[in-house]
Structure formats: structure tokens, C-alpha cells
């Protein structure tokens, strides 16, 4: 999952981002409404956590503009305005959910996971490939029934490869979905993560690299 946090309170934004990254979620930050809109036009976000009180362009205006897109991200409004009237107004603008500040991070994460399941064909919670079993909900991986400890990035990359069902996933696609916008496309992060995954999966040929196409789970 890739998420945009549109929040002008920088400490809060960084705190949310840190917590989400620990859950293997790729996070970008925007400190104003105009930047948030521009980033949504450039990147395919699954969810935008949107403060209503943003500088330059309000969160309400961002919400209205995003809803006009062909394939908008799901919108979770996160704001200090938490009265019933405020929640109704936010939902009427097109928000998918609304959470008032102060909030508990566990609830924010649960709401985001619920939003991520609101798709026409809900994804399987458990993915299987060969002897590999990946549980999205529990964030667990087993190899031939044996639990394997993965880092958040290793889990995210493995999930993307398993979702591809044997098709190649490009280096750029892995960067876009598992890392954030600040990661240089020339970085060795993907290659290093795949190398560690091969070791933890117990086979050097568990993930192949197709020249010009990307990585494929064998």
C-alpha cells in the first residue's frame, strides 16, 4: 500500500509516517493542499490521509478535486474539527472516512486497512506460491510451514511479487509501491532487499531477474 499524508503539522506527519513505515507501508508527505493535489496527479496512491485545515489549498478543496479524477485514492480526513456536523460535511465532500484529532494510531491504521479493502474484488488475505505462504492480515510469512522473520521492506517486496502470480514486476514498480518518492531509481535498495529475501526463502533461485522486465518469483 502507498499512502500520502497531507498534514501541515510536521511533527505529527512524521510520527504517522514512521508508524506506517513500520507496517511496510510506503509513505509520502505533503505540507500544503496544492502540493498534495500535485503529488496525487503524479503518483498512484491507495489512500490519502487528508487534514482539512491545510495552507494554500484547503483539504476540502483537495478532496473535491481528487474526487473528479478517474481513479481517485481513498480519502481519510484527519482533522481537529470533530463534531457531528463536521464529520457529515467531510463525508458529503467525498471523503471515504473521517477521524478526529486527537486519535489513537492503532485506530488510524485499522481504518486505513478497512479502506484498502474497499475494492471491487477484495484481495485474498493469504497468498501462496510454491511452499511460501504470506498472510496479509497477520503480516506473517511461512516457508513449508516454518515461520520466517522479514523486515517491513522485505515483506512488502515479497507481497508484490506474490500478487504478480509469476509475472515479472519491474524495478520501478517495486520502488513505487514499497518505497517513497525520495528513493532514487538508481538505488541498490531493491537489489539488496531481493538478495536478502532469497536468503530467507532458502533458495538463491527463489527470485529471478529478467533482463529488461524485472523480478519474478519462481
From TrEMBL:
GO terms for molecular function: phosphorelay response regulator activity; transcription cis-regulatory region binding. The keyword rRNA-binding does not apply. SUPFAM superfamilies: CheY-like (SSF52172). InterPro entries: CheY-like_superfamily (IPR011006), OmpR/PhoB-type_DNA-bd (IPR001867), Sig_transdc_resp-reg_receiver (IPR001789), WalR-like (IPR039420), WH-like_DNA-bd_sf (IPR036388). Residues 124-218 bind DNA. The keyword Mitochondrion does not apply. SMART domains: REC, Trans_reg_C. One of its GO terms (biological process) is regulation of DNA-templated transcription. Residues 2-116 form the Response regulatory domain. Keywords: DNA-binding, Phosphoprotein. Residues 124-218 form the OmpR/PhoB-type domain. This is DNA-binding response regulator, OmpR family, contains REC and winged-helix (WHTH) domain. The modification 4-aspartylphosphate is found at residue 51. GO terms for cellular component: cytosol; protein-DNA complex. It comes from Streptomyces melanosporofaciens.
Amino acid at each position: 500500500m502507498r499512502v500520502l499524508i497531507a498534514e501541515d503539522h510536521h511533527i505529527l506527519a512524521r510520527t504517522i509516517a514512521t508508524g506506517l513505515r513500520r507496517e511496510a507501508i510506503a509513505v509520502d508527505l505533503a505540507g500544503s493542499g496544492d502540493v498534495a493535489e500535485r503529488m496525487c496527479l503524479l503518483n498512484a496512491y491507495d489512500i490519502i490521509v487528508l487534514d482539512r485545515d491545510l495552507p494554500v489549498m484547503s483539504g476540502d478543496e483537495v478532496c473535491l478535486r481528487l474526487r473528479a479524477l478517474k481513479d481517485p485514492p481513498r480519502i481519510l480526513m484527519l482533522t481537529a474539527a470533530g463534531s457531528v456536523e463536521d464529520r457529515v460535511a467531510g463525508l458529503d465532500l467525498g471523503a471515504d472516512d473521517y477521524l478526529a484529532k486527537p486519535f489513537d494510531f492503532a485506530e488510524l491504521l485499522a481504518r486505513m486497512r478497512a479502506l484498502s479493502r474497499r475494492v471491487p474484488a477484495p484481495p485474498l488475505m493469504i497468498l501462496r506460491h510454491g511452499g511460501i505462504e504470506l498472510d496479509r492480515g497477520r503480516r506473517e510469512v511461512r516457508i513449508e510451514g516454518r515461520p520466517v522473520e522479514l523486515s517491513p521492506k522485505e515483506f512488502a517486496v515479497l507481497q508484490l511479487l506474490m500478487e504478480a502470480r509469476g509475472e515479472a514486476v519491474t524495478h520501478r514498480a517495486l520502488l513505487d509501491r514499497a518505497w517513497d518518492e525520495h528513493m532514487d531509481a538508481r538505488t541498490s535498495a531493491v537489489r539488496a532487499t531481493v538478495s536478502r529475501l532469497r536468503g530467507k526463502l532458502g533458495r538463491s533461485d527463489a527470485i529471478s531477474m529478467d533482463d529488461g522486465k524485472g523480478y519474478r518469483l519462481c
